[in-house]
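Hi C.,

You asked whether I'd gotten around to modeling the 136-residue construct. I have! Everything is below, sequence then structure, no commentary in between.
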Amino acid sequence: MNIYVFGNGNISFDDFKKHYEEVINPYLNNEEVSFLLCDFRGVDTLIMELLKCKTSNVSIYHIGERARYLPDKFNTKVGGWKILGGYENDQERDHEVIKKCTHFIAIDFNSDHKRKSGTAKNMEYCEELGKIRLMK
């Protein structure tokens, strides 16, 4: 099971705990589960902080030569994470992660009738490709 975890950059910590942490917790001790993440602020950094001492089964996808954010490796499992970069833009990176995932966890707080967020577009793409959503 490869779970892509993503969402808005402006999520509150309370909303992260409510909408993400409760969903992710049952998968944390399962060695058959890998987490696929990107390196932007908000959900990406919060999920990295949650996972850093819990699992080595994490892949971080980033644009350019190096990730914008990674947790500290000292006394954590971050040293075992796969860091995959060199993508030209968000869309190229996101589409690669979506191709690799089997499941996803995401919620969008930012779209409205005037604007569709990148999170909403990625959720739609996941659903088009038959990826399984793991939200409540």
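If it helps when you're writing up: The helical segments are 13-24, 43-51, 90-100, 118-128.

Thanks,
B.
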